[in-house]
Automatic annotation (TrEMBL):
<dbReference type="GO" id="GO:0015175">
    <property type="term" value="F:neutral L-amino acid transmembrane transporter activity"/>
</dbReference>
<feature type="transmembrane region" description="Helical">
    <location>
        <begin position="366"/>
        <end position="390"/>
    </location>
</feature>
<feature type="transmembrane region" description="Helical">
    <location>
        <begin position="38"/>
        <end position="57"/>
    </location>
</feature>
<keyword id="KW-0029">Amino-acid transport</keyword>
<keyword id="KW-0472">Membrane</keyword>
<feature type="transmembrane region" description="Helical">
    <location>
        <begin position="195"/>
        <end position="217"/>
    </location>
</feature>
<feature type="transmembrane region" description="Helical">
    <location>
        <begin position="265"/>
        <end position="288"/>
    </location>
</feature>
<dbReference type="GO" id="GO:0005774">
    <property type="term" value="C:vacuolar membrane"/>
</dbReference>
<keyword id="KW-1133">Transmembrane helix</keyword>
<feature type="transmembrane region" description="Helical">
    <location>
        <begin position="63"/>
        <end position="84"/>
    </location>
</feature>
<feature type="transmembrane region" description="Helical">
    <location>
        <begin position="402"/>
        <end position="422"/>
    </location>
</feature>
<keyword id="KW-0812">Transmembrane</keyword>
<dbReference type="GO" id="GO:0015179">
    <property type="term" value="F:L-amino acid transmembrane transporter activity"/>
</dbReference>
<protein>
    <submittedName>
        <fullName>OLC1v1010501C1</fullName>
    </submittedName>
</protein>
<dbReference type="InterPro" id="IPR013057">
    <property type="entry name" value="AA_transpt_TM"/>
</dbReference>
<feature type="transmembrane region" description="Helical">
    <location>
        <begin position="300"/>
        <end position="323"/>
    </location>
</feature>
<keyword id="KW-0813">Transport</keyword>
Length: 430
């Protein structure tokens, strides 16, 4: 599919778009080279979701899991490029007397340009839910990992700290520090911590994969290639979550120096991440088989290297939390505080995220829920819908059919996957 410049025509919603600032991507930045764009795409996509892939492969079977992972990667790339193409068309359109008063700098801007206020509202809701969902999963990961490192005992399956579950203690221990971090009005100076988080992620993944190979060669556990159909939607939700980063695509494309190469760079980035994810998931499952846990690092035991890897991941997710919450604050403060900084509102949101994290028992189950419920809508349904609306008069039957199929299939998957994930969560809690 080509994404060259489109010719001008008219649109009803492309005038006077309210501008939305994007965290860490200020307008006075130098334009990015292909190498920097590759790195930025990697940072935007790779996160804690990868740690739940081996457990997902255990549930779906390693062949089925790999097929789902690469399929999700392909369609994620396709829908990302639909957003880019739609934005390029809208920015090239002109009415008979006026032009766009500002550029479409974010997913929310694009929603407003295509569907007016209702389009921006839909995108805002999805971004708030998905970003908050990511941060909830961070809290669960940190608490479960610390509980495993400091409180696990083979003789006591349900350890307590002063009569309280370790997970509850560690989540509430993080709460006052997160109030302080999330009170910072501007988070630009925390950007190096985001880079540090991804460096630690890569290092941790490398260590885990080497350990996986050694353990597999020693134990060679029984493996399953295909799971039942009942886990299809569960696995799909985790795969969608792992590739979620569509909210950053438009800002990254806008800051690239040679925009015509963005599609190629994005494709190379997605292919690299897919191979890395696939290798990590398969090797983790191959090493531990049916003993694979929802957070793969907890399978590595209590050695010094394993403990350092897990603590490093906890530290980087702890400092990534306020960065991931920043889009939530932008949306909420824009809608309720006229885009003014509101400390009490931020603290209420942090409290809400903390309370939800306390209620969710399983890290991978929650990844599946977030991926199924909002990430599918944000990553597949809305890009295809916006593309269909903007190009409806010039799409051929193949493109029209593909857009409609993505929308319908995405909605079906979202409903079915959400139901499947909720069943898993309540079954685990029971």
């Amino acid at each position: 599919m080509g994404f060259e410049k489109d010719e001008a025509s008219s649109s009803s919603h492309v005038l006077n778009i309210p501008r939305e600032e994007t965290p860490l991507l200020s307008c006075d930045q130098h334009l990015s080279s292909p190498a920097k764009t590759f790195a930025n795409v990697f940072i935007a996509i790779v996160g804690a979701g990868v740690l739940g892939l081996p457990y997902t492969f255990k549930k779906t079977g390693w062949v089925m899991g790999a097929i789902m992972l690469f399929s999700v990667a392909f369609f994620t790339y396709h829908c990302m490029m639909l957003l880019v193409k739609t934005r390029r068309r809208l920015e090239s359109k002109k009415s008979s007397t006026k032009k766009l008063s500002s550029k479409i700098s974010s997913f929310g801007d694009l929603g407003f340009a295509v569907c007016g206020p209702i389009g921006r509202f839909a995108v805002d809701v999805m971004i708030v839910l998905s970003q908050a969902g990511f941060c909830i999963s961070y809290m669960i990961f940190i608490a479960n990992t610390l509980a495993y490192i400091f409180n696990y005992s083979p003789t006591d399956p349900t350890p307590k700290i002063l009569g309280i579950s370790p997970k509850v203690v560690y989540i509430w221990s993080c709460f006052p520090f997160q109030l302080g971090l999330n009170a910072i009005p501007t988070l630009t100076h925390l950007a190096p911590l985001s880079i540090f988080a991804d460096v630690v992620d890569l290092g941790a993944m490398g260590v885990v994969m080497v350990e996986d190979v050694l353990i597999f060669l020693k134990n060679r556990p029984a493996l399953e290639a295909f799971g039942g159909f009942n886990v299809f939607f569960y696995g799909l939700g985790v795969a969608v979550y792992a590739f979620e980063g569509i909210g950053m695509v438009l800002p990254l494309e806008a800051e690239m120096k040679d925009k015509q190469k963005f599609g190629k760079i994005l494709g190379i980035s997605m292919a690299f991440i897919s191979l890395m994810y696939g290798g990590f998931g398969v090797l983790g499952y191959f090493a531990f088989g049916e003993e694979t846990k929802d957070i793969i690092t907890t399978n590595l035991g209590f050695g010094l290297l394993s403990t350092l890897v897990q603590l490093g991941l906890c530290i980087n997710l702890f400092f990534t939390f306020p960065l991931m919450m920043n889009p939530v604050y932008e949306v909420v403060e824009r809608r309720f505080c006229e885009a003014r900084y509101s400390l009490w509102l931020r603290w209420v949101i942090v409290l809400a995220v903390t309370l939800v994290a306390l209620l969710v028992p399983n890290f991978a189950d929650f990844l599946s829920l977030v991926g199924s419920s909002v990430c599918i809508i944000l990553g597949f349904v809305l890009p295809a819908l916006f593309h269909l609306i903007v190009y409806k008069e010039e799409l051929g039957w193949p493109e029209l059919t593909l857009d409609v199929a993505i929308i319908v299939f995405g909605l079906v998957l979202s409903v079915s996957g959400t139901w499947s994930s909720l069943l898993e969560i309540f079954a685990a809690k029971a």
